[in-house]
TrEMBL record, chains A, B:
It comes from Fictibacillus arsenicus. This is LacI family transcriptional regulator. CDD domains: HTH_LacI (cd01392), PBP1_CcpB-like (cd06286). Signal peptide: none annotated. Keywords: DNA-binding, Transcription, Transcription regulation. It holds the Pfam family LacI. GO terms for molecular function: DNA-binding transcription factor activity; transcription cis-regulatory region binding.
Length: 320, 320
């Protein structure tokens, strides 16, 4: 491909003149400008936007790290980020990690290499010390409680919201409460587990590891939970399910096994996804699209560190 | 930020020498290499990957155009593309268009501006003549039957698959068959509508516009369909639903209204999403993750134009 030097040579002008013509600057004679345009046409010259970005130091790309691109929780976050990005002429670079550390480091390296202007990490596997090393290269924003850290974050206080949900179930008469979660590691999961253990302690209830179901991400994972429940001698009477999709799956499979909701088992979802409304699932609303929007604007504002706690709301329906 | 010229000046060497040190080329004396490294350290020099991409003419980014980022159908396509991209050291630039023409043109312009190496269009609103103008700038791949066009495509023959589904329902004794679809425009929708009309004609059945439900994208859209069905005097006895999510929504809401499946209404989904398995929905399997993978490799192979037709398979379960 012809570059700017080739064009200059062909048109018999300086490189500066070619640059001025390309960028529509003044102070170029009509004659020279025409010669440049003819030369560009002749060798089919195309402006390379990377050269423009190189000179401006901006790419108008924002990186978004998600463990799975195809999951309703991250889908809503991405929707919020994508809408805000579109309105601000930014594009998203989607980095799906499958919770592999090396993929997260690749995303951080994109920031270091200035391939993206900022990085939003929706959920991470890397240790904080790894992330910390990349702060100097550009804005990094976390979707978790990072109030103790020197980067911006938008988050739900999962300790507080889990405690509120557990107390609600307890008030409804439940003392055998279990919960379903995606992965057991991770900041959010640790907060939830702490809330669970503190709740049991406060109410003098015993901890039963069989009441905790991990690996619950999607609708179809509800089937596994019900298969386990059916085989249990002493079932929980209530389940706190950290995803409405999983709650919907549990609800559907319980019906097939003759387990009545909420009589035999109370179910409480999380997020207030559309499926919870259609299936009348009691849930804790998390405004994920709004969280995504806030994350985008924090990423754009690289100058200041801010922390936004998002309030959750209990939506009472028919499954508790 | 210091650039390569500043480094050269500071180290007292030529720009070429600095470039050689940065890119680990041989033929640099240990002394000069050390001077360059010291100068780079002193002014905190960071390699700008856009400069590297500029010189190599590659970005290792592939653009993916989707109308909605948060939809299970596109979720599975993105998953297939994302996995193939990860394994080939490519990143995705996700361009959510909401079916706005201007956003699609922005994506095409990214290809023209060399901000991405190739573009995969999962679903489009732009006229073919608009897309055609951008072919010269890099590989564009379509997820629709583009056998008549000079760009690669991976697609399902929606005329053929819709006809097969309609004939299956007809064999099961149905002659009052309706269908649910996302949008009525678009190549795939036009093919389906043609198959529907040809089916009616062949079997001497009358066309009833009330039997076609559009705007059906998500689980919650099933509610609207059932609300309409309940108010109809002469309901269809079978529905072909172009999304398993919508089929699941219809199934859930029918139960609430005392409409028995399949006795009162047969339901046939599309895609074979996990939700269809859990809810025992008869469906046409489309291997979307595999489609995504094929689209990625077609985008990478900019030299040859290929067309891959993906076979669908009827999965008989309990809703027909």
């Amino acid at each position: 491909m012809a570059n700017i030097k080739d064009i200059a040579k062909m048109a018999g002008v300086s490189v500066t003149t070619v640059s001025r013509v390309i960028n529509n600057y003044p102070y170029v004679s009509a004659e020279k400008a025409e010669a440049v345009r003819q030369a560009m046409k002749k060798c089919n010259y195309q402006r390379n936007i990377n050269a423009v970005h190189l000179s401006k130091g901006k790419t108008f790309l924002v990186g978004v790290v998600v463990p799975f691109s195809n999951h309703p929780y991250f889908g809503l976050l991405i929707e919020g980020i994508a809408n805000a990005a579109l309105n601000n002429n930014y594009k998203l670079v989607l980095i799906q990690t499958n919770y592999e550390e090396v993929k997260e480091i690749e995303a951080l390296t994109m920031l270091k290499d200035k391939q993206i202007d900022a990085l939003i990490i929706c959920s991470r596997i890397c240790d904080w010390r790894v992330i910390e090393e990349f702060i100097e290269y550009g804005p990094i924003v976390l979707c978790e409680d990072a109030r103790e850290k020197n980067i911006s974050s938008t988050f739900v206080d999962h300790y507080k919201s889990f405690s509120a949900a557990l107390n609600y179930l307890h008030q409804k008469g439940h003392s055998r409460i279990g919960y379903c979660i995606g992965r057991q590691s991770g900041t959010n999961s640790e907060q939830r587990d702490a809330a669970y253990k503190d709740f049991l302690k406060k109410n003098s209830l015993t901890y039963n590891p069989d009441f905790i179901f991990s690996g619950c991400f999607n609708f179809e994972d509800g089937e596994k939970v019900v298969t386990d429940l059916v085989q249990m001698k002493d079932r929980p009477t209530a389940l706190l399910v950290t995803s409405d999709q999983v709650a919907a799956g549990i609800l559907t499979c319980c019906k097939e096994h003759g387990i009545f909701i909420p009589e035999d088992l109370a179910i409480m979802g999380f997020d207030n996804q559309p499926i919870s409304k259609v299936m009348h699932i009691t849930t804790l609303e998390i405004p994920l699209v709004e969280v995504g929007r806030k994350l985008f604007f924090q990423a754009m504002d690289g100058e200041t560190v801010s922390h936004e706690e998002i309030a959750v709301e209990l939506i009472e329906r028919e499954t508790v």
